[in-house]
Amino acid sequence: MIGFRPGASPLHRAHPYTPLAVAGALLCLVFAARTPAEVGALALAAVALAIVGGATGYVARPALMLALPTWLLLFVLHGVLGPDPHRAVGALQISEPGLAHALVLGGRITAILFAFLTVLATVSPARLVEAMTERGVSFAATYLLVSTLTVVPRLRARAAGILEAQQCRGLRLGGSPVARLAALGPLVLPLILGALAEVDEQVLALDTRGVTSGRVRTALDPPPDSAPEWALRWVCAVVVLGAWSSRLLDLLLTLGTRAQELGR
Amino acid sequence: MTLVRLREASFRYAGGHAPALDGISLDVLSGEVVALAGRPGSGTSTLLLVAGGYAPRLVGGTLTGERVIAATRPSVVFATPWTQLTGLCQTVFAEVAFGPASHGQERERIRATVARQLARLGVEHLASRDPATLSGGELQRVIVAAALALEPDLLLLDDPAAELDPDAADALYDLLRELAAAGTAVMVATPDTERAARAATRGIVLEAGRIVHDGAPAAMPA
Amino acid sequence: MTDTGLAVRWEGVSHDYGAGAVLRDLSLAIEPGDAVALLGSNGAGKTTLTRMLMGLVRPRAGRVSVGDWDVAGRRPDEMALRVGYAFQHADQQLFARSVREDVAFGPRRLGQGEGLVDEVLGELDLAALAARHPYDLPVPVRKLVTLAGVLAMRPRVCVLDEPTAGFDRGLRELVIAAVRRRTAGGVTVLAVSHDRAFVSAVARRVIRLDGGRIAADARTDSPG
Fold first, then answer.
1. Residues A90-121: pLDDT tens digits?
2. By CB atoms within 10 Å of each CB, which of A106, B103, B155, C78 scores lowest?
3. Which of C77, C89, C94 sits opposite A171 (nearest CB)?
């Protein structure tokens, strides 16, 4: 299930900025990587992140459920219908450049899913709020980030309640596509209406607890940080910078070479 | 001391068919426990929002007439506790500490305040629990503790005992009397006029946004 | 409202949510047409017990039946043909553009006519609000609308979770009258409630749960 799960893994115990930095670096690097081998290595690194976070058990399933249909689509669109040269593999004609492209795209999606879901599972929203408060980040920015991280589990919990209530009124799940479509209204509308009403109420609740007091918030229990973690975050930033600089340089060189060729 | 003064105050929600409050005049003094009663839609919840300065600021709408709020630390508790969670706190302790922390109070002071309020509401044993796992009654008491952690001079409550069992409801109303005795002004909207009448120093009944009774709590219709 | 109520039985039911037992080898039988109040502090197991009747919670051990139906083999939408469950927090089911449309949703789903809809709206003093959008109404009235939605499905067993929480005397009287009409018609009623006035007005039997077991079980003198 998507969302934070309490635990004692190194990611759980780390300063919240650290898993965010590592996952963020992976996300940036997968777009700098261009070959299946590079992307594959990053995807494996993202899976390793999930293992370190003790989260493979509940990250693998949603990640694969989202990734596998995409892989299939990519395989058909690029691997089968891609440009020449083609090579026979059993009964299929596989496009070599197309397959490489599919592997890169699929690997990127897999890496992103594993990294993102691992962060959701191992970074406690409450600890993140404390960490950001201690660093002087404004409440608005803090709330925006944390709400984004927790929106899926919150909506899911709400949806589960709505589903139960409507089933108890005779709503049957499954059946023909028309029946399924008809079932959406009673499920989705209370979700939206309720979520909107909840926004109003939450604005009131937060305001009455002083978030607009204008004073600097106190971090009651900020998570501890350490020199190695701080160093790791800087390494992530440097690696990303290096990878993208290299990519940019390659791009400029390629453009330069093409311009020269055109000039001749 | 007069903490809230309203003179011929009327309030209409954006898109509202009729005024939610119509020509309300009243003063709320420190040390009072004012019970507000009225059928659903009579304006009791709106009166709390207006008295606390939350309407129209946060809910939109238009306010006419005179309103003077001398209270510097209003605090409000609504009937639905699960809508008053910040959603940002992993423990009850952190949830109750949220308000004082937002006001930049020192850690030691916050910890002492929170411990005191949790004990007052009889929920100290829930301090390390996740607020999302509490029952309605437990959560409501936590929300009241969170409101009290701000040490309000004006406490507004909208049906605070809706989720509470009878003993807990009695304890809550006793607490409201205690708070008033220490100088806080308390306004509590409730359908439970019998229980409120025992704790209140004054009873106000609203009908269609107007005050139809303002006096002895015992004289409020049940 | 002349449908006969059904018997409800929990036999040797145990359940936990992974952090300690919520129900411990509990057996309870409610006869058709009886009106029972279920009391107990938070966490005593009341809601878990009632949710088992709809198949929302499957017991780890034991058997739950409604009439001749074993709940184990039924989905919640099937149980809705026999059991009307009024949730404590009403807003989770309101979605239609009008009160009437929302109340009619359940009967339509179950293939029943809408004949009872207007009758129930009148009974709960909601007729004048039939065309209003539920979310335009105050919270207690929305709760009444969801109750109307449950009663309009002609349940033979009515399960009410805190049906009068947040209600003033007027609304409470409406609910009491509606429940009494059903019990007089032989419908089985099970209500979880902290409201002493409501319990004494409708319940003929009061059961108290404590720590997942039945701590007290007594008949009352209520006319019910």
1. 888 888 889 999 999 999 999 999 999 999 99
2. C78
3. C77
Cβ-Cβ contacts under 8 Å, B99 against chain A: 208-210
Sort out which chain C residues have CB atoms less than 8 A from B137's CB and list them.
Answer: 42
Residues B1-43 have pLDDT tens digits of 999 999 999 999 987 778 999 999 999 999 999 999 998 889 9
C166 lies within 8 A of chain B by CB:
yes
In this model, does residue C3 exceed pLDDT 60? no
Q: Which of B39, B80, B164 sits opposite C139 (nearest CB)?
A: B80
CA distance B103 to chain C (A): 31
CB contact under 8 A, A168 and C81: no
List of chains touching B (3+ CB pairs within 8 A): A, C
Position A179, amino acid: A
**Token digits for A19?**
């898993």
The model's pTM is 0.81
Query: Is B40 within 8 Å of C171 when comparing Cβ atoms?
Result: yes
Pairing mode of beta strands A86-89, A92-95:
antiparallel
C86 in the Ramachandran plot: left (φ > 0), alpha (ψ -120 to 50) or beta?
Answer: beta
Residue A42 exposed, middle or buried by CB count within 10 Å (0-12, 13-18, 19+) = buried
C138, C165, C170 ranked by CB distance to B162: nearest:
C165
Instruction: Give contacts of C165 with chain B, Cβ < 8 Å.
Output: 162-163
Residues of B with CB below 8 A from A207's CB?
Answer: 54, 58
Q: pLDDT digit string (tens) for C8-54?
A: 999 999 998 876 788 999 999 999 999 999 998 776 789 899 999 99
Cα angle value A69/A71/A72 (rounded, 5°): 65
In A145-164, the residues whose Cβ lies within 8 Å of chain C are: 158, 161-162, 164
Does residue C129 contact residue C105 with C-beta atoms inside 8 Å?
A: no
Q: What number of C-beta contacts closer than 8 Å exist between A and C?
A: 66
Query: What tokens does A155 get?
Result: 């909506």
CB contact under 8 A, B79 and C139: yes
Tokens of residue B28, six digits: 């709320």
pLDDT at C2: 45
CB contact under 8 A, C80 and A170: yes
CA distance B109 to chain C (A): 32
Taking the C-alpha atoms of residue A92 and residue A88, their distance in angstroms, rounded to an integer, is: 6
For the record, the structure tokens of B34 come out as 């004012």
Residue by residue, what is the 3-state secondary structure of C155-185? CCEEEEECCCCCCCHHHHHHHHHHHHHHHHC
Q: In angstroms, rounded to a whole number, what is the distance separating the alpha carbons of residues A109 and A97?
A: 19
Contacts of A9 (CB under 8 A, 6+ apart): A52, A53, A54, A55, A122
pLDDT at C1: 41
Rounded CA-CA distance B144/A209 in Å is 12
Mean pLDDT for chain C overall: 90
Q: Percentage helix, strand, coil, to 5, in chain B? A: 35, 25, 35
| Residues 6+ away with beta carbon under 8 Å from A50 | A56, A59, A60, A63, A114, A117, A118, A121
CB-based contact (8 Å) between A259 and chain C?
A: no
* Chain B residue with the nearest C-alpha to that of A205: B84
Tokens of B221: 């219709």
Name the minimum distance, in Å, from the CA of C140 to any CA of chain B.
Answer: 7
Summarised one tens digit per residue, pLDDT across range C59-101 is: 999 999 999 999 998 999 999 999 999 998 777 778 888 999 9
How large is the ipTM? Answer: 0.90
| Chain A hits for C94, Cβ within 8 Å | 190, 193
Residue A191 — very low, low, confident or very high, per pLDDT cuts 50/70/90?
A: confident
